[in-house]
Structure prediction request, 69 residues.
Amino acid sequence: MPKEKKGKKPHKNKPTSRKYAKYQVHGDSITRARSCPRCGPGVFLMVAKDRVYCGKCHYSEFTGKDNKT
Ligand SMILES: [Zn+2]
Prediction:
């Protein structure tokens, strides 16, 4: 393997976003995961134990069972 030039890092493959995992097809219908109300469809929310979070616009929404507002 030739010596890498200084300042150039070797390329590493990153894992894909797995956005396809947010869609589930049931026969003719498609079930989508919750998407961001700010970013619109296509941007999905990260689901935590008691909240959902958008990594794009940092929108977060609490989904606790006892929703005290
Ligand atoms: Zn968003």
